[in-house]
Amino acid sequence: MATLEDMKALYDGFDLVAPITSVSMTINGPAPTILAFFLNTAIDQQTEKFRAAEGRDPSPEEAAELRAQALENVRGTVQADILKEDQGQNTCLFSTEFSLRMMADIQEWFIQQRVRNFYSVSISGYHIAEAGANPISQLAFTLANGFTYVEAYLARGMKVDDFAPNLSFFFSNGMDPEYSVLGRVARRIWAVAMKEKYGANERSQKLKYHVQTSGRSLHAQEMDFNDIRTTLQALIAIYDNCNSLHTNAYDEAVTTPTEDSVRRALAIQLIINREWGLAMNENPLQGSFIIDELTDLVEEAVLQEFERISERGGVLGAMETGYQRGRIQDESMLYEQRKHDGTLPIIGVNTFRNPHADAAEPGAIELARGTGAEKQSQLARVRDFQDRHQEPAHAALSALKKTAMEGGNVFAVLMDAARVCSLQQVTDAFFEVGGQYRRNV
Fold first, then answer.
1. pLDDT score recorded for residue 256
2. What is the dihedral of CA 187, 193, 199, 205, to 10 degrees?
3. Among residues 225, 176, 217, 254, which one has the least CA distance to residue 348?
4. For residue 8, how far is the Cα from the chain centroid?
5. Pairing assessment for the beta strands 167-173 and 121-124 based on DSSP bridges
6. Is 268 exposed, middle or buried (CB count within 10 Å of its CB: 0-12, 13-18, 19+)?
7. pLDDT tens per residue, range 276-294
8. Who has the most CB within 10 Å: 35, 54, 160, 205?
9. Which residues, other chains included, contact 309 with Cβ-Cβ below 8 Å and sequence gap of 6+?
């Protein structure tokens, strides 16, 4: 995704302002620019619908109204979680300070433009878990990151009830028992803190979260078994009342999912939601001894982790010493050790292995890879875009850097720059004024 034209081509045929359309962009380092491409695409779609209906261009007043309609109705989320990038995923581009400032700029702009149905950040534990963290660490680090964003936005002068509804969360569901109460513990801790510490209203106290089944639990050995694991993970996510759910395809252990494997992954959700009777009841596990006991135990463990983070100067202070990253690496090593010595049984991988696996002919797997011609075609399109917008891009980039250096809202200027600049051009400009990311050793 290199230019606004790429974004428009991607969403051609989709009505981004329709209530049934919700877009999730799992983008982090370049999130502000990609988001600006997306929002401009939604605005332009509204303008095109007006032209098609009226047979003319909108007046300036009508254009402003169409823009407001698009921004007030567009639905979805952008990940943009720079804290978990440092802690677990490694796709940071800019300095942490500049990235946090940009996230606050986005949220401030959302408030000013009345963007109510789009989440400005998806505070993500999924990648912390995929990097190796156990469920307790995933939940504790993610919630602590969430409260760090709250503090940062309050320090910018924003009111908690203006921005808290634009925050969402994203967790991984694995096979450990703690995952069955991840959501309810998160909601309990978040609601209490938002009410008692920040004085937030009822809507701001409600934690919204997405679940993706665990990619780390997918194995290349006996790949068909992965659908069984995914089904169980999806079931506990639905029982725990997640707001949305992604089920992994069984072949993601080795490649980009195929069309057939994606259909099977989707079928897991459809069968649970449409055929599995118990899923038609809200809170089907409520009152169960093991669920209530696990809820209390997990909450206690998360609060203890909060204390360890606080002792190290909070989330940012702990990051400076590599605390979260070190914990994730230690837990990942323990997981791998247990997998290899068999103390963590994984059917078909380290126990109950297929006795005929060596003799069986490996099945053909469709690998999804971009061709050299496709890559060169994309590069040519980007160069053509840059050539056609050379003069306005120069002016837009100058305005972008000037705003960043003077402390203005960078995202407001980025919305204009995204119309004439490529992702590379914006990134280079941000490197100049915001600094490139450097990991603490």
1. 87
2. -10
3. 225
4. 21
5. parallel
6. buried
7. 999 988 889 989 999 999 9
8. 35
9. 140, 141, 144, 315, 318, 323, 324
**Total number of residues shown for the chain:** 441
- pLDDT (tens digit per residue) in 152-196: 999 999 999 999 999 999 999 999 999 999 999 999 999 999 999
Q: Alpha-carbon distance 372 to 380, whole Å?
A: 12
* Radius of gyration for the alpha carbons in the chain, expressed in angstroms and rounded: 23
Single out the residue of 138, 207, 211 nearest to residue 173, CA to CA.
211
Q: What's the predicted TM-score (pTM) here?
A: 0.94
Give the rounded percent of residues in the chain with a pLDDT score beyond 90. 87
Exposure of 76 by Cβ count < 10 A (0-12 exposed, 13-18 middle, 19+ buried)? middle
For Cα atoms 223, 334, 338, give the angle at the middle one, nearest 5 degrees.
55
**Tokens standing for residue 318:** 């702990």
| Cα–Cα dist 121/123, whole Å | 6
Distance CA 139, CA 170 (A): 10
pLDDT digits (tens, 9 = 90+) for 316-346: 999 999 999 999 999 999 999 999 999 999 9
H or E element at residue 403: helix 390-406
Provide CB contacts within 8 A for 120, sequence distance 6+.
78, 80, 103, 106, 107, 110, 163, 166, 167
Count other Cβ atoms within 10 Å, centred on residue 320: 11
305: its two tokens: 């982790």
